[in-house]
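User: I'm curious whether this sequence folds into something compact or stays loose and floppy. Could you predict its structure so I can see for myself?
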Amino acid sequence: LVTFGPYSFDLSVGILMHSTGRIHMTSSEQRLMQIFASSPDRILSRDDIAKSMDNTMRDRSIDVAVARLRAKIEPDPRFPVYLQNIRNKGWLLRTDTPPDISHATS
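Assistant: Here's the prediction. I'll summarize afterward.
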């Protein structure tokens, strides 16, 4: 079980829960969440993600999948708190965020 903010992801069954209930995910979103949750707080490059998905996704497909996942888990996807961009390196699932985080725009 990987917890970040008000979410928990059960790696064994691929279920994402929010404090208010289960979050529906497509199979590609679920697989992407499994990849990030398997390596929390670690930067994953597009290549890392593509390899984990048996090279079935390409750069732009990965970007779109990350954006869709962010739309489901971020308070404001324009300012990611949990699934963060690390410039020129990849993405990182932050698990050190408090459960009651509310994003202040700056």
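Summary: The beta strands are 2-4, 7-10, 15-18, 21-23, 83-86, 90-93. The mean pLDDT is 89.
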